Amino acid sequence: MKKLCFLFFLICGISFSQNLEEAIYTAAESFISNKNENSFQLLKKQEALFKTQAKTKDEQLALVFLQCHKAYYLDEHSKLKDAISSYEDALNRFKNNELSKLSNFDIIESCLKPLGNLYTKTGDYTNAVSTINQYIFLAEKSKNTKHQISGAINLAKLYQTIGKHETVLKIVDDAFKLSNSSTNQKTLLQSIKASSLIALNKYNEAALLNNSTSKFENFKNNYIVDFQKNNYENALTSLKKAKECLSEANLSTRELAKFYVEEAQLQFILKNQNVALKSLQKAIKLLIPDFKSNGLPTKNDLYAENTFIDIFDLYATIETNSKNALECYNLSFHVSELLQENWTSQENKTRNQSDNRIRSEKCIDIVYYNYQKTKNKALLFEAFQFSETNKASILKSINQKKKRLQQHPNDPLLVKEFSLIKAQEHYTNLLIKEQLGNNQASKLNALSEQLTSISLQLKSLKPNIEKKYPENKNFYTLETIQKKLKKDKAVLVEYFYGKNSVYQFIISEKDMTLQRFELSNETKQNIINFIHLFDDGSIINNNINNYTNQAFSIYNLLKLNTISPYKNVVIIPDGLLNFIPFEALLSSKTRTTSFEKMPFLIKNQTIVYNSNAQFYLTEHVTNNNNQLLGFFPVFENTNQKLTYSIDEAQAIEENIPSKIFMNAEASKKNFIKNASKYGILHLSTHASAGNSVTPANLSFYDDTMFLNELYSLDINPNLVVLSACETGIGVLYKGEGAMSMARGFQYAGTENLLFTLWQINDLSTSQIMQSFYKNYSDSQSAFFANHQSKIDYLENKSISNAKKSPYYWSSFVYYGKLEPPKSNYTLFYIIFSIAISLIVLFLFLKHRKHDRNTSRISSK
Predict the structure, then answer these.
(1) DSSP 514
(2) How far apart (Å, rounded) are the C-alpha atoms in residues 666 and 755?
(3) Which of 345, 330, 278, 336 has the alpha carbon at shortest distance from 307?
(4) Residue 99, domain member (yes or no)
(5) Contact at 8 Å (CB) between 675 and 715?
(6) What stretch of H or E contains 802?
(7) Who wins on pLDDT, 121 or 826?
(8) Does an H or E element contain 683, and which?
(9) Which structural domain, as residue segments, surrounds residue 852?
(10) Helix (H) or strand (E) holding 577
């Protein structure tokens, strides 16, 4: 009743006030003058009502003012997610109503700057960069040097957080060139530059700047230098001096908490564990002021703040009880999930996988150690689940969204979500191309604004979708995997490639094992050396004995002898193992130089790869259209002509119902227009793995398709064959794998994929592809056809020994389902069985008719 009365008087008060605009400002100013929980709750109720009534631009501007102050209060009280939502709502309102034309309200200072900082705090670096760049652009446009330098400071801090120190130095040096910077801004810039120089081990250059920083920063930088040089006692002395200057350092609560975490890390290294724990407790109580216990907070106490992750990870490292250590890591994983709830771009999610992977390895270490002591087999699957936690998680997420949309194709929420995801990748691709090309500030800003708008819309949809379709995180059990393996007559081998160890999980229909080997520098180098044997066709042929020794050594290193009894093998690689052609490994020592006679793994086992166990278990929706769409640019009259690509196309037409685009017709436009209409896609072209600046890409006759443009497509073919160089190679991210064109097709909806691991030979590729499609036509199994095409190649007497080097045939790897072959013999057997059954039935019916006739004669 009191609430109803309150609302009545509130409505009356607004109705009879001079106007709604004044009422909104009055409510906001009343809150500003007396900030507490009660006044905040009142403000929230007022805001909800004002939102329904605000119509004019003046009223909308007043609401922006209110929401910015509300967000500021939420940020001060560690309600970071709610603070971000309030700032985002204010920014949307300001842009949608074009309020910059109405007033000189400082949207940068009031909204964009704190919002960018909040994105940085919560690890949403993609939106942080976009937001900061937006207000730098606005500041440049209005010639507001103060905001330009402020933007440079925040952008530099962001790039420092993610370890891009060369970028930091460029941003800072450019900012120093701007005039009218304040003394405080100059000091901040110098401090940031000094920190990045130290991170790059440029100590002498940093020392020159260190004298112009504050006492606190000076001592703090000295601590970092000593820490990096492993002079821990000196580092402690400098840290203590920095601690004495805390009162004048003007640190935020969060910065102070981080300082105590750094202190705890140093004390732990110095084996002062109790001191370290006390510092961690100080950090926790700074971040959770109401927390009174000396233990660990519960999940309900926590919020999206990455400092918690540093705290719990260190707690777990100090903890001697394995159960308690795992609980600490689980708190870290929980905070990581809280952070990711607000992330919408896959670039941001990919960039942040590394820390989770390190944590997963530590958890596997603990479980493996417990298993060694107890031999409790239940622990093996627990370790396996840690391995799977962050393995291709972004691909898993988009795959789940697509499956959900397939089940509910008419749900407007899901349709809108998927439309926005495609638009996000489209604009990301345009942004990347602009950055690689003209780099015009106005275009970059417009694209950043588009991406920000899409991100906000995706966030607004998420709560309703999650409420309607609750996520089930327990996708499978060990029994589920074993049942599938029994059906496929296969064994599953999954690797976890960590920082210190490689773990191998082997699951068969009846058993599960876990093995570990240390990832020493020597071991890692051996793996890298083996991968580099495939850099050029001459490397293996010039020293065949070196190849056979290494191929057998890697076979033993990866402990593959234990799966020799199994014909079908599902391999889930990880890390650098993604680039190893397992089929080309040797299962025994050999002195022969004849490749045809070598004991390649492919001789006895048929291998299929996958990105994670969930993909292996997923039931695939088959496209009823099994026609092939082929693209063969050929590139005639260029130095990149693919001569044998024409033979490849002809072989396809002879074996598969197909539509082939040759030469100029093999355009990007035709691919985008037709790709979703066919069950098989074949691309015979040039491709590049890209680098840290340029994404992986694929060449059409008229244009290049970059990775993000492929992400924006929605296709569902039964099979994609990428007959091009390096389509499985790209920048490698821990857990997520290579950012390759192959991954792009997986993201776009491809579940069965044949692609390459290095620069392939035109002629041998054509020969293998001709054999592949002949076998595929007979068997309707890409799994079988891939295996058999390589066996056919090795047994082909017309091919020289040099060209039978694994460089020429083992580049193609198949990711997808294990489909048994439907051979012509099987078809013949089925027809023969039906014919025999019909004959037997005919004879039986004839015999019965004869018996009835005989019976009638007898009765007469």
Answers:
(1) E
(2) 19
(3) 336
(4) no
(5) yes
(6) none
(7) 121
(8) strand 680-684
(9) 830-860
(10) none
Q: What is the mean pLDDT of the chain?
A: 89
Take residue 801 and report the two structure tokens written for it: 């020994």
For residue 166, what are its two tokens? 């060369």
Identity of the residue numbered 186: K
Helix axes 125-141, 113-121, angle to 10 degrees: 160
Q: Identify the weakest region by mean pLDDT among 65-74, 89-98, 338-347, 798-807.
A: 338-347
pLDDT above 90: percentage of residues in the chain: 70
Does residue 50 form part of some domain?
no
Residues 6+ apart with CB under 8 A from 586: 548, 551, 552, 555, 598, 599, 600, 601
Nearest 10 degrees: Cα torsion 662, 667, 673, 677: 30
Strand partners, 514: 505
Q: Does residue 680 contact residue 773 with C-beta atoms inside 8 Å?
A: no
Residue 624 has pLDDT above 90, yes or no: no
Q: Do 395 and 743 touch, CB atoms closer than 8 A?
A: yes
Residues 758 and 836 in one domain: no
Q: Note the pLDDT tens digit of each residue in 48-69.
A: 999 999 999 999 999 999 999 9
Alpha carbon distance 130, 347 (integer Å): 13
Helix (H) or strand (E) holding 518: strand 512-518
Tokens linked to 700 = 């059409």
Same-domain pairing of 665 and 763: yes
One domain for residues 662 and 771: yes
- Is the pLDDT reported for residue 7 higher than 70? no
State both tokens at 269: 């290294």
- Pair (771, 840) in one structural domain: no
577: left (phi over 0), alpha (psi -120 to 50) or beta: alpha
H or E stretch covering 738: strand 737-739
Looking at the 3D structure of the chain, how many domains does it have?
3
Domain for residue 606, yes or no?
A: no
Tokens of 442: 């106005």
Pair (764, 835) in one structural domain:
no
**Which pair of structure tokens corresponds to residue 457?**
């819309």
Of 285-294, 343-352, 593-602, the range with the highest mean pLDDT is 593-602
Tokens of 405: 């949309």
The overall longest dimension of the chain from CA atoms, in Å, is: 129
DSSP letter for each residue of 393-443? HHHHHHHHHHHHHHHSTT-HHHHHHHHHHHHHHHHHHHHHHHHHTT--HHH
CB 80 within 8 A of CB 122: yes
728 part of a folded domain:
yes
Average pLDDT score over residue span 8-17: 43
Residue type, 853: N
Does residue 634 come out as left (phi exceeding 0), alpha (psi in the -120 to 50 range) or beta? Answer: left
Q: Domain check: are 737 and 836 in the same one?
A: no
Domain boundary among 468, 495, 515: 468
Query: Please, what is the Cα angle at 825 between 824 and 828, to 5 degrees?
Result: 85
How big, in percent rounded to 5, are the helix, strand and coil portions of the chain? 65, 10, 25
CATH number at residue 763: 3.40.50.1460
Position 26 pLDDT exceeds 80: yes
- Tell which residue, 685, 596, 649, 645, has the closest CA to residue 773: 649
